[in-house]
Specification:
This protein is of the alpha+beta class. Helices cover 23% and strands 28% of the residues. Strand 8 and strand 9 form a beta hairpin. Helix 1 packs antiparallel against helix 2 and helix 5 (335-347) crosses helix 6. The chain is globular. The chain starts with a helix and ends with a strand.
């Protein structure tokens, strides 16, 4: 089969140079091996299913046979990622989804040594910042991160193999010392005080890797081994949620539900970090052949003391339980917080709680009230179905936009108002 595939390659590409042809031959061989492996796996699974008495007849998915007109946004849909243990910081100090930015322009307060522009995408809501190679980008944040903090953002890697290596993408946290966080020096020398950076090398055929490095005063502090992340290749063309959690020296990173790093002493303590740098490295692809987009950047400080708040004080509020836009669909990054709440309820089986959903002021009051109710119900459903909490211990309600805790005129205020409150029922 392999020889046949290679012969077909010569017939298909008669004018390809020898160097390029060698690469194509290797690619075809890899693809053939991949298909053979898939067929062997399928045959093994079929044989095991038969031996175990399982049915091998395919059935239609309920989603394709239902005649209901109810949309996904009307139901509290679950995305099961119970192993995801990321928990966002307790206080949001920077949030950027570009909703107030002009299309085609670089976001207000950002800096770059190249170009970048706000755009919209057909498949995904909201506004996105398109970034280009070989340029560096600094956010508009001016607040120090403290010693415990989290950084989150969504990235889309619109990549399609055209024979060249994909651009590397790095995300660096650094300290600007006494200088401005957007000073031009940090577009190149971001490591001159303290810094920690994750360098992603996207690839094909499960070759994608990421490595973590950190610096103090321009010198290396920590260098990790390259970590394989084959899942990245499955996510090309759709949003990937990057979550970073720093607790003093400890650095942890997730891509969607996959934990990439948990480095006990990866972050230098000599300086307080206060900026996020995004860098797109060199590639031979031109701008029309790839696209890299960023949005929903959230920075928060502090460690949520969930147990103390809920059990000792009788109430707990969180902005780390998140949902799809205008829907009650839980995002995967919500499950770390939900899992922690479930653990507390399992330890204190006499405790009953009321779950209250809140929204920001966008949209009309009636829709926001209904949405907040459905989101509270989605959290209850997750606690019951994913973690076995008795549903009789949980009540739900929605308050919509009626009880803001921050200014809805500010992006950070809106993010703070989109929250879930929990209160112990006496």
């Amino acid at each position: 089969m392999k020889n046949f595939a290679v012969a077909a390659l010569f017939a298909t590409f008669p004018f390809v140079g020898s160097a390029q042809l060698g690469g194509l031959v290797n690619k075809v061989k890899n693809k053939v091996n991949q298909r053979i492996d898939q067929k062997v796996d399928a045959a093994i699974d079929k044989g095991l299913d038969k031996a175990e008495g399982k049915s091998t007849t395919k059935t239609a998915s309920p989603a394709t046979t239902s005649s209901s007109n109810t949309t996904v946004a009307d139901e509290p849909v679950l995305k099961s990622t119970s192993k995801f243990d990321f928990i966002a910081g307790s206080t949001i100090f920077y949030y950027e989804n570009f909703e107030q930015e002009a299309m085609g322009e670089l976001p207000t307060g950002w800096n770059t040594n190249g170009t970048g522009e706000i755009t919209s995408l057909d498949k995904y809501p909201g506004k996105w910042l398109r970034v280009h190679h070989p340029f560096t980008y600094l956010t508009a944040n001016k607040t120090a991160f403290s010693e415990n903090y989290t950084i989150e953002f969504d990235i889309i890697l619109q990549l399609k193999n055209n024979g060249w290596m994909y651009p590397q993408v790095s995300f660096g946290l650094f300290s600007s010392g006494t200088e401005a966080t957007t000073a031009n020096d940090f577009l190149k020398d971001y490591d001159k005080y303290g810094a920690v950076t994750a360098l992603f090398t996207p690839g094909e055929f499960k070759s994608s890797k990421v490595v973590l490095k950190s610096y103090v005063d321009g010198k290396g502090f920590f260098t990790g081994e390259p970590k394989s992340i084959p899942e990245l290749e499955q996510w090309y063309g759709r949003p990937v949620h990057i979550a970073i959690q720093v607790q003093k020296e400890r650095y942890r990173m997730w891509a969607n539900e996959v934990k990439i790093f948990d480095i006990p002493k990866g972050v230098p303590l000599n300086y307080v970090m206060n900026q996020l740098q995004i860098r797109i490295h060199h590639t031979n692809y031109n701008d029309s052949q790839y696209g890299i987009y960023l949005s929903n950047i959230k920075m928060a400080k502090g460690l949520p003391d969930t147990r103390h708040k809920l059990i000792d004080e009788g109430k707990f509020s969180t902005t780390s339980i998140l949902f799809d836009v205008n829907a009650a669909t839980l995002k995967p990054e919500s499950y770390g917080t939900i899992k922690e709440i479930a653990g507390i309820l399992n330890d204190y089986k006499e405790v009953r709680i009321k779950i209250t959903g809140h929204t920001d002021s966008d949209g009309n009051d009636k829709d926001n009230l209904l949405l907040s109710q459905k989101r509270a119900e989605a959290v209850k459903t997750a606690l019951v179905n994913e973690y076995g909490i008795d549903g009789s211990r949980l009540e739900t309600e929605g308050k919509g936009e009626a009880e803001p805790v921050a200014d809805n005129k500010l992006k950070e205020g809106k993010a703070a108002n989109r929250r879930i409150d929990m209160k112990v029922i006496k």
